[in-house]
Amino acid sequence: MKRLTQLANELNVRKAEYSRLNWTLYTTGYDFGIEGAYEKIMEIMKDKENFGLIESYMEQELSKADKRRVEILHNSFKPFHLTDELNALNLKIQQKTNELLKILNNFRYQLDGREVSAVELAQVLSMDSDREKRKEAYFARNQINGLMVENGFIELIDLRKEYAKQYGAENFVAYQLEANELDGGLFDSWQSELQEILPQMTEGRKKFAQEFLGEDEIKPWDEQYIQSQIAPSLNETVDMSEYYTNIQELFGSFCIDLPSMNITYDISPRANKSEWGYNFTVETGKDSRILANVKNKYFEYGVLLHETGHGVHSFLLDPEEKILNEGVSGIVSEGIANLFQGFLYSPAFYGKFFKDAEKVGEEFRRLKEYQKLNSLRSISRIFFDHSLYKNDIASLDDIHGLYWENQLAVLGEGALDQAPPWAYMIHFTTHPIYLHNYFMGDVTCAMLEQVFKEKHGGSMEEMPEQFGQFLRSEVIEPSGTLKYNDLFQEISGREFSLKYLLD
Ligand SMILES: [Zn+2]
User: Fold this and answer.
1) Which ranges does the record mark as transmembrane (predicted)?
2) SS3 assignment, position 265
């Protein structure tokens, strides 16, 4: 395996360089040669000798772990050894994605004739009691739809469609599932499972709408607002200069020593900086960098906890296991990140901020009830992403048509009177067929909480040290050695099921 390890090390150096350049691009808008760095990675992946070496290991008798290492490398190298056309297409896809990414990162919305950041829009949606104002803030996010299409978003979708076709996959969704070692029929039952509980969801939402809006229906621009009506503490002003200490203490309770980890934070909004949240794993267990955009509200800690969860996950992996670390499923990493994000509603974290812990606890208990009611709604945006690759699209109107069609089919909700905000979600451009990772990550967390309780007789909040240990030994350590489905079964003894979210 020595030669394979060497190959993985070489690849790792180039990927780290690529990641550092991405970090600079996302935080400052400067591109110091992303494409060149990507081509350098491709050089290694395309090399026939390298691929031959991996294939030669496929025929050998190997230990289980080595077999998995070879499988991971083979999966990632294989697409580069099919045809020259596919490699050319791949490069074009990368170029187009980068072009559009820059437009997204540099774009700023207008509200009331003034430039606003995504953080400000989020604050209006969470706090403004004027419903019309919130509606304006909600639709402000559609301002970038046209720009993305003018600059080639549909071209990018077509390139991905063509790639999947030449690869021999049924469509780009199927291609992505295969690339991520997931079952092609993964989503087949979701629609019917959702339909089963949709009437109950709608009824539950109606009660909240009546109580907090005096209306029968929650509109998209009410979603954040209603959450902060249920739990006003979300909007509490906090001093963000203390963020590191607060986060460090939370992770410390799980025996996770944040200061020993080389995690860099860039948390303030700026011109030309991406308005999303990211963790750039430059090198697993050596260098992680967090991009976030927060100002001064308690709910903004959610993104910091999520991204820190990613960073910590990286540092709990063995940095020497470069190949196995590549085999960690996106579902596991988003699951772990969401798990830590969830501590926003736990006394272990909010206890630092609020004096009346009982009152806040009651707020967050109701908030969780509400969130549970909505837990399956994100299937809608997951399926919208799919629909882009399963239908012919020629214009912006086609995309909007698909958006409403999908929303009606999935949630039974009709079209609104303005263009739907979609392009602002960076995932459609940079991370296609990725959104299920968050959703399935939540299912995974629900499963982990349940299994932990069964095994240890207490909740993760009651036994944080044991939970930290459980997370390391049962989830993080084996996470690269098993495909997602196998890992899920190994931990729970059961098949993956959306029901975990509803129990
Ligand atoms: Zn994440």
Assistant:
1) none
2) strand
| DSSP notation for 289-332 | EEE----SBGGGHHHHHHHHHHHHHHHHS-TT-HHHHHT--HHH
Cα–ligand 1 centroid distance for 342 (angstroms): 13
Task: Look at phi and psi of residue 148 and say left if phi exceeds 0, alpha if psi is from -120 to 50, else beta.
Answer: alpha
How far does the centroid of ligand 1 lie from the alpha carbon of residue 224, in Å? Answer: 20
| pLDDT range class, residue 176, cuts 50, 70, 90 | very high
Q: How many C-beta atoms lie closer than 10 Å to residue 134's C-beta?
A: 23
> What's the CATH class of domain 240-375+436-502?
mainly alpha
pLDDT digits (tens, 9 = 90+) for 130-142: 999 999 999 999 9
Residue 117 CA to ligand 1 center (angstroms) comes to 21
What's the CA-to-centroid distance between 58 and ligand 1, angstroms?
Answer: 33
- What residues does CATH 1.10.1370.40 cover in the chain? 240-375+436-502
- The answer to whether the beta carbons of residues 233 and 350 sit under 8 Å apart is yes
- Please tell me the distance from the alpha carbon of residue 8 to that of residue 22, in angstroms, as a whole number: 20
Of 296, 299, 293, 294, whose CA–CA distance to 230 is shortest?
Answer: 299
Question: Could you give the CA distance from residue 14 to residue 38 in angstroms, rounded to a whole number?
Answer: 8
